[in-house]
């Protein structure tokens, strides 16, 4: 079935291009970035990041065609190889697009954003995430680009979108022996499964989204995606080895946003059928209907201040968790300085996370930021989603220079 969908989609792409189209060079942009990330965890003053990276991006448009390519080069300096990856080169984008009239098609490595809320991006399903640093929450950094066909059809204020990822990619999990390794030392673990184009009919991820922008400003989206479970789940096999439990799941999602003058109301709600839930003793995971919803609002009384609050609940039959979060951001000195605070607290579990950030836009090209992450117990002693990282308190500095 998925072979047929791919063939039809590619056929539409090719046939949509007019044979005698006028070729016009209209746009060419490039950007280079040099950056540095340093993080020190308070526990034993451990250096968890000493990362130097660079990236280059090229975007070009030729008549109805677009081309995008981006690479990121990174390497940890003075951090033990078993603590963090060394010497990575990653394709961030490499795709060709065609748009004419009401159609737009993009094929190749790309990021496809879904969802409306902040903090935990539950509806952002198409791209797996880089979880090697679970409390690094910058989407532009942690999204793992996928090689996909992204087809869109625009009908007035309604958008239809179809996504096909022939060869899925895995989330990136913390390295064994790293500061975020949650497993006991001395117990080996298996790698996540590999995917192959020859098994596309069995392994491909696919789905779509229909969104409607109403005259009131309400933006409503309905999504379906068949994919491999995004959250890594493990079990102990043969009493001596940790193995990942990777299964295909079906997710239905509803997203909404509504702007009301200085207010923006947001909602993401997803229901995943057959989601594997880990056993606290590393026994075989059970598969359940997992339903998560985040509802929140942002209030911007001026160009300088933004306040946000969210309620997050998860029901994995028969268990139930819920959390609250708050965010405030303030800019001054004509935007050269900014500060942010994010608070996340479990309401029936032990999760607690405070993040403070200071940002200095030194110039149009140079940006320096400093953030503090403190994780601790909240109201309850019941384990939550952050329980494994209670010793991850740290300070993180980030410098970027745009050429």
Shape: globular
Domain unit count? 1
Rg over alpha carbons: 22 Å
- Count the E strands: 20
What does this structure look like?
By secondary structure, the protein is mostly beta strands. It has a single domain (2-15, 29-402), classed as Porin, CATH 2.40.160.10. Helices cover 6% and strands 54% of the residues. The protein is built from three helices and 20 strands. It has helices at 2-16, 139-142, 200-203; strands spanning 25-41, 46-62, 65-76, 88-100, 103-110, 146-155, 158-165, 205-213, 219-228, 234-237, 241-244, 248-260, 263-277, 286-299, 305-316, 319-332, 337-346, 352-361, 366-375, 394-402. It has an 18-stranded antiparallel beta barrel. A two-stranded antiparallel sheet has the order 10-11. The chain is globular and about 60 Å long. The termini are far apart.
Strand and helix layout:
Elements (H helix, E strand, L loop, with lengths): L1 H15 L8 E17 L4 E17 L2 E12 L11 E13 L2 E8 L28 H4 L3 E10 L2 E8 L34 H4 L1 E9 L5 E10 L5 E4 L3 E4 L3 E13 L2 E15 L8 E14 L5 E12 L2 E14 L4 E10 L5 E10 L4 E10 L18 E9 L1
Antiparallel strand pairs: 1-2, 1-20, 2-3, 3-4, 4-5, 5-6, 6-7, 7-8, 8-9, 9-12, 10-11, 12-13, 13-14, 14-15, 15-16, 16-17, 17-18, 18-19, 19-20
């Amino acid at each position: 079935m998925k072979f047929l969908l791919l063939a039809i989609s590619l056929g539409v792409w090719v046939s949509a291009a007019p044979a005698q189209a006028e070729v016009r060079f209209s746009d060419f942009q490039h950007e280079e970035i040099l950056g540095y990330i340093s993080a020190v965890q308070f526990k034993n003053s451990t250096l968890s990041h000493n990362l130097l990276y660079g990236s280059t991006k090229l975007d070009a448009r030729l008549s109805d065609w677009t081309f995008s390519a981006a690479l990121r080069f990174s390497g940890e300096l003075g951090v033990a190889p078993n603590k963090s990856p060394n010497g990575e080169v990653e394709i961030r984008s490499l795709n060709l697009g065609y748009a004419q009239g009401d159609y737009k098609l993009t094929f190749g490595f790309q990021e496809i954003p879904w969802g409306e809320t902040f903090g935990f991006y539950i509806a952002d399903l198409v791209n797996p995430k880089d979880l090697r640093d679970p409390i690094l929450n910058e989407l532009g950094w942690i999204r793992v680009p996928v090689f996909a066909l992204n087809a869109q059809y625009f009908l007035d204020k309604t958008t239809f979108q179809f996504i096909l990822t022939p060869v899925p990619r895995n989330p990136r999990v913390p390295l064994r022996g790293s500061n975020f390794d949650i497993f006991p030392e001395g117990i080996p673990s298996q790698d996540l499964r590999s995917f192959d184009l020859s098994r596309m009919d069995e392994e491909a991820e696919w789905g779509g989204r229909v969104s409607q922008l109403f005259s009131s400003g309400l933006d409503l989206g309905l999504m379906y995606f068949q994919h491999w479970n995004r959250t890594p789940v493990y079990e102990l096999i043969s009493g001596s080895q940790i193995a990942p439990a990777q299964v295909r799941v079906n997710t239905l999602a509803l997203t909404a946003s509504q702007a009301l003058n200085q207010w923006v109301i947001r909602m993401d709600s997803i229901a995943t059928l057959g989601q594997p839930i880990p056993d606290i003793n590393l026994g075989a995971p059970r598969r359940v209907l997992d339903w998560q919803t985040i509802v929140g609002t942002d209030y911007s009384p001026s160009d300088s201040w933004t306040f946000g609050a969210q309620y997050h609940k998860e029901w994995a039959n028969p268990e139930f968790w819920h959390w609250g979060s708050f965010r405030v951001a303030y800019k001054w000195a004509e935007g050269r300085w900014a500060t942010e605070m994010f608070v996340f607290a479990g309401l029936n579990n032990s999760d607690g996370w405070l993040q403070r950030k200071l940002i200095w836009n030194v110039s149009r090209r140079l940006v320096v930021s400093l953030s503090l992450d403190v994780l601790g117990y909240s109201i309850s002693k019941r384990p939550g989603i952050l329980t494994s990282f209670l010793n991850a308190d740290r300070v993180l500095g980030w410098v970027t220079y745009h050429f």
